[in-house]
């Protein structure tokens, strides 16, 4: 391997079985959307995460969109959303003509703060405008602390959509991440822990709702010999070829989780002792997949910043990224309401200012990881790369 071969943040990692399933699709000419691979993939995912049913789709974004429509979110409605996330968590709220209100993170999980959620709901009730749904995001492989969030939402009778695009395979109190809310969504985009090159899944215990979503996702064709339509639909289904990749990928998921957790542990061992370096905590309620190794760097304590590290890595052809820029700081959402963790203390702002995601792909070699670690150490110790005492 060349010394300067590019190291990516989270590249696709194909296993042994994917080609066989894709070949099967070719051999039986099930190239069209839908077919036996789609059915198998849905059953396999539902079984793996512990949901009653699953609907495979063209993207995770499509899954969120359908979940919002199932909850009858429309123009004039409000939807509460995690602020620290990728924009795809929120765009479907705009597709439906509704208005997002952003909820801060908590320091323990980096996910939705139940303290902020309570304050937001009290204030929403006072203004006579409770949200139609809450979208909880499970970031970087870790579930949000769902129990308090579920309790609060039940008290107000508000359904939860779990955006588990980044946390497939993680657990919360022994349950699969994404199965605790009324609806859960996964993504199989190229950078996720498993991929179909592009795709998504909607899961729920409400099979009737999934049937409705399946109907909308296939252009909302009414029962008739000709093409009959009485509702707006979408072209949102996953192709049978890509579902074949998904079947193979899902079988490799346990080993992918193990690999990413091991990569995280190596980073912690090598960089954890550096003053001002704080890795994303793993909450005691479950297992994180460590989809991405994320940490914050306190510039007052460390002799460097997240931005300097990103720059130094980039100069050596290594990809790293800041933590997601919170939605309440995005120009797109500048007029939206934002509720911080505690009054005057925004956790997500600080995570964004100091946060860093390191190369975490399950195919990352020991040698490649060592390269990443050496760059960071030399930045901190000014060329000296000895372990510190
Ligand atoms: C990737 C991602 C999505 C969107 O998934 P796509 O399949 O790319 O549409 C949604 N939410 C989060 C948090 C993501 O990371």
From TrEMBL:
Protein name: Aminotransferase class I/II-fold pyridoxal phosphate-dependent enzyme
Organism the protein comes from: Paenibacillus sp. SYP-B3998
Keywords, alphabetical: Aminotransferase, Pyridoxal phosphate, Transferase
A Gene Ontology BP annotation from the UniProt entry: polysaccharide biosynthetic process
Higher taxonomy: Bacteria, Bacillati, Bacillota, Bacilli, Bacillales
Keyword Transport applies: no
Keyword Transferase appears in the UniProt entry: yes
Record InterPro entries: DegT/StrS_aminotransferase (IPR000653), PyrdxlP-dep_Trfase (IPR015424), PyrdxlP-dep_Trfase_major (IPR015421), PyrdxlP-dep_Trfase_small (IPR015422)
Active site: residue positions: 192 (proton acceptor)
């Amino acid at each position: 391997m060349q010394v300067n071969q590019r190291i990516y943040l989270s590249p696709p990692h194909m296993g042994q079985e994917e080609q066989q399933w894709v070949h099967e699709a070719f051999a039986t000419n099930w190239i069209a959307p839908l077919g036996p691979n789609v059915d198998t993939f849905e059953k396999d995912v539902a079984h793996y995460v512990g949901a009653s049913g699953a609907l495979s789709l063209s993207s995770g974004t499509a899954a969120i969109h359908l979940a919002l429509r199932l909850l009858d979110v429309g123009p004039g409605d409000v939807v509460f959303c995690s602020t620290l996330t990728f924009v795809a968590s929120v765009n479907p709220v705009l597709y439906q003509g509704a208005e997002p209100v952003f909820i801060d993170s908590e320091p323990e999980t980096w996910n939705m703060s139940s303290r902020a959620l309570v304050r937001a709901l009290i204030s929403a009730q006072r203004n006579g405008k409770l949200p139609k749904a809450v979208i909880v995001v499970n970031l970087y492989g870790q579930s949000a602390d769902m129990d308090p969030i579920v309790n609060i939402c039940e008290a107000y009778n508000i359904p939860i959509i779990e955006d588990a695009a980044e946390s497939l395979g993680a657990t919360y109190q022994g349950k699969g991440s994404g199965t605790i809310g009324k609806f859960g969504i996964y993504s199989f985009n190229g950078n996720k822990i498993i991929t179909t090159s592009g795709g998504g899944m909607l899961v729920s215990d409400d099979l009737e709702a999934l049937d409705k979503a399946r109907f909308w996702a296939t252009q909302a064709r009414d029962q008739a010999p000709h093409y009959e339509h009485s509702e707006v639909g979408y072209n949102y289904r996953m192709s049978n070829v890509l579902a074949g990749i998904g079947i193979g990928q899902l079988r490799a998921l346990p080993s992918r989780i193990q690999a990413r957790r091991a990569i995280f542990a190596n980073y912690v061992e090598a960089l954890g002792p550096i003053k001002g370096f704080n890795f994303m905590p793993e909450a005691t309620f479950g297992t994180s997949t460590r989809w991405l190794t994320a940490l914050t760097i306190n510039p007052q304590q460390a002799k460097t910043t997240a931005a300097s590290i990103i720059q130094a890595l980039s100069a050596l052809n290594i990809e790293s990224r800041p933590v997601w820029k919170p939605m309440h700081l995005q120009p797109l959402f500048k007029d939206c309401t934002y509720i911080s963790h505690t009054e005057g203390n925004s956790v997500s702002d600080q995570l964004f200012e100091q946060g860093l995601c390191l190369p975490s792909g399950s195919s990352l070699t020991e040698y490649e990881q060592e390269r990443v670690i050496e760059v960071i150490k030399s930045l901190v110790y000014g060329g000296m790369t000895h372990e510190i005492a």
